[in-house]
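Archive entry: two folds, one per protein. Generate the first.
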Amino acid sequence: MAGPMYRRVLLKLGGESMAGPVGVGISPPAAEELAKKIKSVKEMDVEVALVLGAGNLWRGKDGLAQGMERATADHMGMLGTIMNALALQDALERQGVITRVQTSIEMRAIAEPYIRLRAIRHLEKGRVVIIGGGTGNPYFTTDTAAALRAVEINAQVLVKATKVDAVYAEDPQINPHARRFDHLAYIEALNMHVGVIDSTALTLCMDNDLPIIVLNLWKEGSIESAMKGEPVGTLIGK
């Protein structure tokens, strides 16, 4: 059987993937299901790093609507991503997958500080690396953090795993006949202002020639198919 097309991937997952059907909080069964998907990719001899959002725990826009300082709201979101990282690490370890959590905001009692070369070394040793804390700076999304870390660790592809199966010209839940894209050039995605990934992350990937695959996390075998180079979701690239 042919090996994977990509040997090192960074998976960007929304915080909602940790929440289960209710959409808020951390659900141990949801974390376990997610861990099984990651383990399946790992067993393809693919080096896996992850960046998680925190929408299941905190949404900064809710604080901003009440007059909260943007930097404070963003720092709270960064802490939420670390909570998600620890929960997913626990689920992966219980699946027998050796995992390390690194954080851009140092908290040495519970996780390693993010160090690029150490993260790469963990990947080379077959460990899954979960990078929490976003970029460590306010005003940047976890999409941008994912793009930045993917470039830093020399990932071959950034996979944005969401609840939609591709990029569409319009919201497919509003317009079921919306045009679906199998492939987009970076500049096309930027001009479309695609909602599935922010423009800063897109620009960073474009400047560093890092392909992005947008796919449905919950579709069985979707990430494995993407790793094999099979057509799945939307490929954003040259």
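Generate the second and append.
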Amino acid sequence: MTGRWRQRIARIGSSLATAAARPAQFTLYLLSGFAPRRKSLWVFGSWGGHRFADNAAAFFQYCHQVELDAVDLVWISRRRDIVEQLRRQGYEAHLAWSVRGVLRCLRAGVFIFDCFAKDINFWLSRDAITVNLWSGVPLKAFERDIDNPGSRYYRLFHGVAPVRLAYSAMMPWHLVHPDLIIATSEETAAITRRAFDVPEPAVVVTGFPRNDLLLSAEGHRQARSRCPPVVLAAADAGSTVFFYLPTFRDSAKPYLNIDWERLDALMEEVDGVFLIKFHPMDVTTFDHRSPRVVQLPQDIDVYHVLPFTSALISDYSSVIFDYMLMDRPIIYYTPDLAEFRASSRKLLFDPGDIAVGPCLSTPEELFAALTEIARDRSRSHDGGARRDAAMARLHAFDDDRSSARVLHAIRSVAGS
């Protein structure tokens, strides 16, 4: 039996197990709404419970720093190593289905997550106030905006009735409207309202908590404590640190188009280090290893790395918008733009309209841009009027106060 067939059989088995468990889980969800909830108990989670990262993690740590009076802060995870690590740091953390984790979720008045309540424990969330910190500026269509009939999310929201019913049973957290969602600007707020089908007051322009790390000396200090040593060593040595963050392709087709040996030689020539990190859902095989071309772990929080980089290379990832805040060079490397448009979700922004750096499609163009940045970092990005125009559309704030604004918004909704 081939590996592909093993994967298919495993997926079928998992789907059958999920379907069998759904009646009991929906019953639990219904009953959880009768639990007496306390608005001063907040539970947090991220990435389906499998990571401590992004806006939820940044906001969780901020809430501890400001020492909220009479508010209990609890991280919920599905990974024992994350729970143990957070406990060693002095935080309260529990596994999602541990006795303590279940009791904390049932009593929590506020659920704070990156995407959906399943980041914490959806089945214990009914009647809690739900706060969606979302995962990034929406370059790609999401939720109800997806218009690709091949997407399961399109079928969930726009398919025929029996199909919608089946997908609703499998992914019910997509159908529960959050009480509060954050955005970075009025334009992105309008997109978010439409995609989630929520009223205007439910979306608040605050900026993203994770970006506070990029914009203050204290944020850089915190990031440094969790940044991989290989990155800090390169930055402290004065090397040009490039960070390549390709996004996840819905098509799952190979997209890398780089001569790694040639890149290695270029990094040696310009005293650069080329970091690459794949999306957590990506299964791309990467075999090249050298001191100058370094793959970072897929589950690392990139916001602890970004402050120590010289330039970003990405494509359709929302990280391009966050990096824009630091006013450093950005290369938009999109060798598969036509394929991406044809096989993935539609783009809500044309890359050329919001780019503050060169949009490239060939390895030759990429190497030329890398060389230019390494030789003169100050002139290698398209700042000025283009950056100002993009910032005006995408970022209402460029300070380190996003977490403070999110906290104010939650208190307004929760009354705690």
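Annotation attached to the second fold: The chain has a mean pLDDT of 89. DSSP finds 16 helices and 13 strands in the chain.
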